[in-house]
What we know:
It is a single chain. This protein is α/β, with parallel strands linked by helices. It has helices at about 45-60, 65-75, 80-90, 95-105, 110-120, 135-140, 180-190, 235-245, 280-285, 310-320, 330-340, 360-370, and strands at about 10-15, 65, 120-125, 145-150, 160-165, 170, 200-205, 215-220, 220-225, 250-255, 270-275, 275-280, 290-295, 305-310, 325, 345-350, 355, 375, 395-400. The protein folds into two domains: about 10-65 and about 155-400, 5-stranded Propeller (L-arginine/glycine Amidinotransferase, Chain A); about 70-150, Pentein (Orthogonal Bundle). A five-stranded mixed sheet has the order 8-9-10-13-14. The chain has a three-stranded mixed sheet with strand order 2-1-19. It has a three-stranded mixed sheet with strand order 5-6-7. A hairpin with a 2-residue loop joins strand 11 and strand 12. The radius of gyration is 21 Å and the shape is globular. The protein starts with 11 loop residues before the first strand and ends in a 5-residue tail after the last strand. The relative contact order is 0.16. The structure holds arginine. Arginine binds near residues 36, 265 and 386. It is an enzyme of class 3 (hydrolase). Belongs to the arginine deiminase family. Pathway: Amino-acid degradation; L-arginine degradation via ADI pathway; carbamoyl phosphate from L-arginine: step 1/2. Keywords: Arginine metabolism, Cytoplasm, Hydrolase.
Amino acid sequence: xxxxxxxxxxxxxxxxxxxxxxxxxxxxxxxxxxxxxxxxxxxxxxxxxxxxxxxxxxxxxxxxxxxxxxxxxxxxxxxxxxxxxxxxxxxxxxxxxxxxxxxxxxxxxxxxxxxxxxxxxxxxxxxxxxxxxxxxxxxxxxxxxxxxxxxxxxxxxxxxxxxxxxxxxxxxxxxxxxxxxxxxxxxxxxxxxxxxxxxxxxxxxxxxxxxxxxxxxxxxxxxxxxxxxxxxxxxxxxxxxxxxxxxxxxxxxxxxxxxxxxxxxxxxxxxxxxxxxxxxxxxxxxxxxxxxxxxxxxxxxxxxxxxxxxxxxxxxxxxxxxxxxxxxxxxxxxxxxxxxxxxxxxxxxxxxxxxxxxxxxxxxxxxxxxxxxxxxxxxxxxxxxxxxxxxxxxxxxxxxxxx
Length: 403
Ligand SMILES: NC(=[NH2+])NCCC[C@H](N)C(=O)O
């Protein structure tokens, strides 16, 4: 099985999604901010929206893999099960007594049930504590709203916890506490699931912070990396070194993005819709700059040039005259509203064909005027975590772009 991705727009063959489930039902007005959601989603409707998204992809011949299925299959491998169990038990929050109770609880779960717990977490009242097997001081002092194992409601955004560059997978190192454990799951899947045997890695968790939403494969050999709230300059540098060493790219564009919720990742302000066109948030388009990092010869340090305007630096690195820009929305206020609702965050299925949220009416009209076909999907509930079709997908196979 060959997984291969060298662009944002080559015809999509296989994609990793996560159908949201009980982990979304953990969100309450008490914890939604720390769990990185702006509202409390209606779980059933979010699932319907997500199913429609997956159906739209399948209808166009895309193979859809679900993270929970891969995880369940991975947990059938003894080493993977031991490793993932060990990882949740190692949390210093637990202490020895509670750790022993949780270990007992997990030991009896079959792979599917264990996958559920690793994704949806374990609530205080779900752990059966009896007088013979007490939970100790930690369990006693826990608030009944606390989680024994924290849920992962942002797993929905599969873009961020792993990424593919050509034939290598990168398991990322997520910045926010609420998301760190996500990459333990993707790491186990790629290391132990039979489908991925022999796959080489271009990034590993535990390295400098890097999230997939910040990584844009502008063209074969040219990668843009946003640095801001989620990916650090050190993460961008590390990715650069690793892709250069593996011969996966010759140029990295490091693009500073404002450290704000609305622009947490580069893909919240810019996504590609054609081999030479981006959909971009006009309120930042002209201000966005890039540093060009070019691979050194024979292990020399990479060369850093810039800053230069992002669009110029990108076109130069891609060796094209210019990168065409399609604006999000028309006037600044509509643009701001539609950027917030992930109008920028389209997923390309092929050059000039992409999926976007239907609610971003002006942006979608702009795309159509520019000759880009948009497949609209509903996202009233899915969008409450601030992520669109690109965030909710991790492409594993795209047809290579010929240059
Ligand atoms: N690639 C993206 N833009 N992902 C969006 C992730 C949204 C998620 N709630 C977070 O804050 O992390």
